[in-house]
Amino acid sequence: MAAIYSGIHLKLKNPRTPWPDKLKLARFAWISTQCLLPNKEQVLFDWTSHALTGFYNKKMEVPPEVVEGLWTYLDDILHSRKLHNVLSQGKTISLRLTVAQMINDRILEYSSGLTSVSFHTVLSCCHGILTSPVLSVAYTAKYELLVELLSRLCGLSSMQLRQQKSEEPLSPKVFEVLLVVLSTYLTVQKQQANSNRVFSQVTAHLLHPLLLLRHLLNTRVWTENDDVKIRQNLSKEIRNKVDAVLQSALFIPDHLPSYKDEVLPSEDESRAKKSHAGKGLQGPVNIILSKLCVQGANEEEEALFYAVKSNSLALLFKFALDSFCKGGENKQVIFHLMAKLIIALGFTDELDIDEKFSASNWGIALLALENLINSCLAGDIYNVAADRIKHGEVQLNFYRKLARLLFNNTQMGIPAWYRCLRTLLALNHHILEPDLDELLSAVWVDADNIELRVRKAREALVSAVLQTYSKLRQLPKLIEELLDVVCRPAADELRPALLPEAIQKTLTQCLLDNPPSQNLEICWLILNRMQCYMLPHIQDETSDLALKMFSVSLLLYAVLFSFKTLDNSTPVPIVKQTQNVMTAILKVVEDLLKQNLVIEGAWREKVQEVTLLLTHTWVEADALFQIHCAKYTSPAVSQSGSLVDKALTLRDMDSPLGKFLQKLLTLHKLKIHMLKSFTVTSDASEMQKMAQFILNRQELSIMLDANQIWDLQFCSVNTNTYKAAHWFLVTSNLPLIAPYLEPNDMSVFAECMLKSLLQGLDASGSNLENTGISVSLISRQLLESPVLCELPEIFSAVMKCIIKAFFGLLDSSHMQLISPSFFKPCMEMVGVDNGETGMTPSLNRLKAIGQEMLDSVKKRSSIPLSKTQVDQLLQLLKITSVLNGYAMSPEDYSELFLSLFTLTSCVQGDESVNLSASLGLLKELFSVMASVLLVKNSQTLLKVVHGSNLLEATMTSLFSRSNKGLFKGVDGLTWLSFLQSVQDFIQSLIQLIIDRKSSMCLNLEKFISFMVESNIAAGVLAVDTGDLCSLQLHLVILSVLCKEMITTLGKNKQLDQTLTHLLEKATSVMEPAVLAVLMGKGSSLLRQSFSVDVVTVMIRSELARASSSEDDGLEKISRMTFYRSFYQQILKELFPSPRPMDFLISSVNYLSAFYTIMEKTKTADLEEVHIEILHSIHALLSGTWMSLSDVKELEGPVKELLNQLVSNCSQEQFHLLLMMLREGLVPAKIEEGHATEVLSAVTSIKLLSCCLLPEHCLKAFWLITPQIISTLIFVIKESSKLPSLTRALTLPTLEALTVLLLQGEAQISNPHNVIVVLGALQFVPLDSHSMEDYHAAFEAIHEALFAIIHCYPQVMLKASPAFLNCFHRLVSSVMHEGRQRGDSDRSSEKDRESLLKCARLVERMYTHIANASEDFTVLSSFMVAQYVCELQRVTLQPEIKAHLTEGIYCILDHCAEQGIKFLNTTLQMGVKEVFNELYNSYIQYHKSQRQGEEKYTV
């Protein structure tokens, strides 16, 4: 051993030993157990360090491959299990500082592009050292060394991030090591005793590298090549660490005096400066800013460094705010610090542009400025009164300078410019008031037509200005200033609209809240400006007064129709003032009408628009005031009609807005005429002319873009939007004008509506961000609304237009051959001899169409369709499916159905249409026909065509297609969907035949005979060709027939005899067909599911036939062998492996039917079948492949089966069932990984508790219910420990407990069995990352609480603390989830809706608790205290808060005065304020309303 020791040690130190041999010996020494060097680990570490140090200090020559090997060797040692074991035993190993320095140097080399070794290995060594508490001393012992490492790694990471255009992906290792270094450094930094030293080190070496790194991580455009780990996890964690490093280094309470000394004016803090002279930091702000102002080597780098500085200033200010302004202290220090930071953006001390400032930096600078002043606003730094009294308005003067900076350097294309002004307005409206005219001009009146983001920011600013002056009750002052700006000479004639939609909505809301006297004052201001400034010079061709007059008129219209209308409760002075205003408006209108008769020139059109707008405004407002206020007297009672007539006589109206306003005035005139009683024919014809003028057939026939959006504003009516405005006017007043329209007008209206609907379908998905309306959208809403149904003539015109469109797509020559009567009017059908009397021409025509349709099916006529025609037909069908069938006239209904039926029977895709599209068209046709048959008019159809003929024609057409091979090659799901649509149609048609009762048996017998005959032919064909489509069609139709006949049995003995005979006839051919389908080739699972459903119907038919016969009918069940073989096959395939859900549901239904027939026949092996079915169902629910959603879907069929099994079971059978459940309900199986077995037992218990049990079984079940409840609670406790089982097992178990409590209301007598459930609720987790899982858990807990409060109120009172604790969990969790979040953390619309449901459940539970019992009110104040304590911690979303507030109001109703005093005494200060706010709103809104309701309650 001594030889081994001395040999290796000497050879490692021997300069003559080749380096490769030394490296091999070192590796051997590390891994070998035979090498017993004293302190071997330290020796090998030292040798490696010495070798690497010697090489890099150039004291020895080492081959490059050996240097690489030395680094790899060091990395292997650092990450070896052996080293970990040695260190864990407490052995101390030191690492030389030179190793740390070498690693730092290698990082610097790599950053410079020079590298001699694998850099990944060096980083791995660094990671190994820092993650070992013992070895990391090499860095932590020397603070400067760690600072250097962090600085160089930041530089390296930033270099990689800046290479955005490079194809080389980011190295995850660099960022992993950087995160470790940051974590280590943060720990060391917090341990430093000298905070000034930390500040100096950070500002000197780390500040700019860290901020640059943070900026690059924030602004990087991540690509698919970037590592997901870096993008999602590492980048966020690194940013958080950087923030922590900077905040704890630069802004700590110890540095506050130094910041005060620097930023506060000398006269304010002279004493503080003397006391701190020579202590602390000298000029920390200047030091920080000097490090941020780094000069770039080129323009690109200069722009990058400015962006880093701008983004960092807001971040540093936020750190200072969080550190120095706790509790509202040091606000003046924070303000002066913010001023210095704003100046550092590139401005002078007087807030002018610095000469070095680049205009390209305005976007970044404004974003930084916005963040700074927003932080100031959020931190409540600016107190207006304190600033004026104590500090001589220093803050106000600064903000005014800032506002002047923004106005002197307007940046109209940058949204942040508007947001900065909005924040300054929120700080104090006096900041912007001196520049109010400039503000209104720049952002409202003269603003350019700009992109969406900028427009939204601009409209938000204008809305904020309106809301601010409305709250200050200074809206007239603002409008006066606005009018001054509007009346100035415009730089551009084409000013933007004065009142876009968003601004008009805000103005409307402000005027509603404004005093009426102020609103009238605003009207006077507008009128005075019109009369004194605009009207006298409106004919001047060189001025733009007409445009200004139009803008002001729009403003007057908006004001008049925004504030509250007059009514009988309005004070008389307000009514008189309003009359005076209306008189003044009337004078303006009359003057304009006089001038319009003679005016000529360039502005004539705009003056006409002004005249019409003011006329419309006056007549509408005047009529409104007269209707609602008896005190109001119209200034022109006799002139109103003549005023409208004069306005309508304005000639040569080419303006879209002018035409639209004339139509509005015509509509007003029509309404006035309708209010008067008229009997004269001339009045009726005049009203018809008015209606036709409003509709304007010529304009409607010209279909432009039906998807052009209109925002409902007059100012935006132009050539493009006029169509939408006109269509909106027509459709919204359709009930008024429809009675006066001619048939041609209605046809044009219907055509326009259909064209727009089709255009809307083509452009579906576009214009999603628009909030306006379009022709297609209006048409869609009209089609879906009840308004159209109440206008039978219009509805009929729309239907005729759709039917015409159906056949307009097809070749007219084909249609003439198939059904010539479709193209003949009713009058031509008078002479048709049909052998019946009393037939109307329309019915004659329909009968002829029906007969031609049946003949075409017999002739196998077909109409080829191209791909385009198929698509157009599908669009028409989509529109048809929306039509309300109950509003159709019998003739229209029958014609529509016959049209659809003809298409179904005859259309066929040509070679351009693939099989799937052709089948999809047929499916859609059958679906629409099925829905059409459900309405009451469907009975008229059988007067036109016999039901059996329709059924036979349908099947003949389908069999014909099948025989041609048109269904071959269809995938299983598409075919199954098609079969379902055919089944729905046939079912609806058979129901119609049965409901009509007339010739029901004849129709059914005829159709069944047809099906039996064709079934034999189809079976032969299927055997020959292997095509099973015809057979499956037969089985579907026969199944439907059997189902409908089963439901009809039992109404009439004679009818029953006929139906049982038909059932026997139908089922006789179903068995061979099923066997043929099962033996065919193809997707067996699809056929199994289909076949199981068919055989289930066969069994139910046998049962119905047997039960309706006079004797017991049991001998008539002749296919037991077939049913039993089917049963055996189902048991084999039910649960061994995953199966489709439709097969499982069909199988469970079959087992239920089979057990019923076994009971009826009283077979000897009934007991055995009972046991087999129970075991199969339990095994199915226990399947590991079964998801929770699968189990939920199976619950209905399984419950029905269980009900069947236990309804007549013996005591022994029920005991066996309980034993099986006990075996599954073992909590230990959860840990063993058999949670599905437990879920199976839980589900079975839940379903069993809802079954109708025999008396002996009922007693036995509820006798053991306490043990079941205890076991379920234990299952909840165990499963809640594993988050993955919360949704899969915990919540289903809780649901089972809830069902037991609900079903056992009369059975569970021991309160303890209910109280223990409350304890179990505490274990259900409410901290899921998924909102869907959270909502499910929330709802499950709520339902359990509701079951207790509803069924066991006395138990709830006894255990009220436990109950309230469970409920408070729900309240606090919904408050936490419903708090307001930042833009980056916004939840989806679906998540918000789920959260809103939770809030509604909380509100509902508060109501239940309040209504539970008077005894419970003792704890009301306690519940309120819990609520306000939680509310004080979060800011809730408004919609969530609304529901919770309504709920807690119900609890406050039961709080006695003594409880309110108790709350005011015991609550802490912050919480007390929240409570007082809540209680005041309760008194003001809720209590007064409740007392008002109680006053009228008996």
Structure overview:
By secondary structure, the protein is mostly helical. 71% of the residues lie in helices and 0% in strands. It has 72 helices and 2 strands. It has a two-stranded parallel ribbon. Helix 11 packs across helix 16, helix 55 runs parallel beside helix 57 (1188-1206) and helix 62 (1265-1279) packs parallel to helix 64. It is globular and about 115 Å long. The termini are far apart.
Shape: globular
**What is the number of strand segments?**
2
Measure the end-to-end span: 107 Å
Tally of alpha and pi helices: 72
Strand order of the largest sheet: 1-2
| Content-based structural category | mainly alpha
Helix content: over 70%
Characteristic key phrases:
disordered C terminus; mainly alpha; two-stranded parallel ribbon; 2 strands; disordered N terminus; 1498 residues
Helix and strand topology:
Layout: H1 2-13, H2 19-31, H3 40-56, H4 64-78, H5 81-88, H6 97-111, H7 119-130, H8 137-140, H9 143-162, H10 172-191, H11 195-219, H12 228-250, H13 256-263, H14 270-275, H15 284-292, H16 299-324, H17 331-343, H18 362-378, H19 384-390, H20 394-408, H21 415-427, H22 429-432, H23 436-445, H24 452-471, H25 475-487, H26 501-513, H27 516-534, H28 545-560, H29 572-596, H30 604-628, H31 640-648, H32 656-675, H33 681-695, H34 697-701, H35 722-732, H36 734-737, H37 743-762, H38 775-784, H39 786-789, H40 792-808, H41 812-818, H42 841-858, E1 863-865, H43 867-880, H44 890-906, E2 907-909, H45 915-932, H46 941-944, H47 947-963, H48 972-996, H49 1000-1025, H50 1029-1048, H51 1053-1068, H52 1070-1079, H53 1084-1108, H54 1120-1133, H55 1141-1161, H56 1166-1181, H57 1188-1206, H58 1211-1224, H59 1228-1231, H60 1235-1249, H61 1255-1263, H62 1265-1279, H63 1286-1303, H64 1311-1321, H65 1331-1351, H66 1353-1358, H67 1360-1377, H68 1389-1412, H69 1420-1433, H70 1438-1452, H71 1457-1466, H72 1469-1495
Parallel strand pairs: 1-2
Helix pairs in contact: 2-4, 3-4, 4-7, 6-7, 6-9, 7-10, 9-10, 9-11, 10-12, 11-12, 11-15, 11-16, 12-16, 16-17, 16-18, 17-18, 18-21, 21-24, 23-25, 24-26, 25-27, 27-28, 27-29, 28-30, 29-30, 30-31, 30-32, 31-32, 32-33, 32-35, 35-38, 37-38, 37-40, 40-44, 42-44, 43-45, 44-45, 44-47, 45-48, 47-49, ...
